[in-house]
Write a structure and sequence with these properties.
The protein is α+β, with helices and mostly antiparallel strands and 288 residues long. The chain contains seven helices and ten strands.
Length: 288
């Protein structure tokens, strides 16, 4: 990978900003001309508070989410100069100022000053996502219509749990992701659970935790588990597709409304720099 990590310029202060958003009405995280995106809305508010920035305040995000995908807990970092910080005035509470200007579907959770070697993306040790499905066994709550995938048939939870185990560990997820140029699809899936949440009407929740996720990886995995749960595929079919490293299989990428980024993990402060180096190491299936 060998990508250069943004170095903090002398005189600037780095801040970690934890935020959440309802992704329904956004065209994803990344700025796109003429489209409403989380990045675009966030930087627009930063410009109002701190003045225009040609570099978007060197903002970096833990993980870009696609159109329609939510984030209960996302992390970014920004770099601010003394002059920009002075614009906060007598009330230095950046969180309150930003939330007063942001639309209700984006909220800043907290703002923290961090060391120069903190990096929202490269210092992260893991990400955790949750995908929520309401099948015919679930209670169909219209208040959660924007946050569930709705299915008209029942899913076999035990079959889905059995198939989910095929994804655990270090694999090349090329068959279950959309590859990007010069990027690896090797990831370590550390945890995956499939369970019903009775408190939310018996919906099915699929939680996945990995060092990182390739593009469309979570929604591709969920699509495979749904097909198994519906009785149209087996765990062996899943294992065969994963091993093939080819997208020529019957499993489909599910729609985004049920997906939310719920956690980004970081090491102790003293280990930020070390974790950045680990992340930049190009992954191989020979890695221990």
């Amino acid at each position: 990978m060998n990508q250069a990590v943004d170095q903090l310029v002398d005189g600037l202060t780095r801040f970690r900003i934890d935020l959440s958003y309802d992704g329904t009405d956004f065209a994803g995280w990344a700025k796109q001309p003429g489209l409403r995106t989380v990045h675009g809305e966030f930087v627009a508010v930063m410009n109002k508070i701190f003045g225009p920035s040609d570099t978007d305040f060197s903002l970096r995000v833990a993980g870009r989410t696609d159109a329609g995908v939510h984030a209960e807990h996302q992390v970014v970092h920004v770099d601010l100069s003394p002059a920009q910080l002075k614009r906060l005035g007598r009330n230095p509470d950046m969180r309150l100022k930003m939330n007063a200007l942001l639309d209700p579907d984006i909220r800043v959770i907290k703002v923290s000053e961090v060391p120069a070697d903190f990096h929202a993306r490269y210092a992260a040790t893991h990400r955790r996502y949750r995908y929520t499905i309401a099948d015919s066994v679930s209670g169909w709550n219209p208040l959660r219509a924007r946050y569930n995938l709705w299915l008209k048939y029942p899913l076999d939870l035990e079959a889905m749990q059995a198939a989910s185990k095929e994804f655990l560990g270090l694999h090349d997820f090329a068959a279950f992701s959309k590859p990007k140029p010069k990027a690896t699809t090797i990831r370590e899936l550390r945890e995956i659970t499939v369970k019903r949440n009775k408190a939310l009407g018996n919906v099915i929740e699929i939680e996945l935790m990995a060092d990182a996720f390739a593009h469309n990886m979570v929604r591709s995995i969920v699509g495979a588990l749904i097909k198994v749960g519906a009785g149209r595929a087996t765990p062996k079919d899943v294992a065969k597709a994963l091993k093939s490293r080819s997208r020529a299989h019957p499993f489909k990428v599910v729609t985004p409304e049920g997906l939310s980024l719920i956690e980004v993990g970081y090491p102790a402060m003293k280990d930020y720099g070390k974790q950045v180096l680990i992340t930049q190491h190009f992954r191989s299936l020979d890695d221990n």
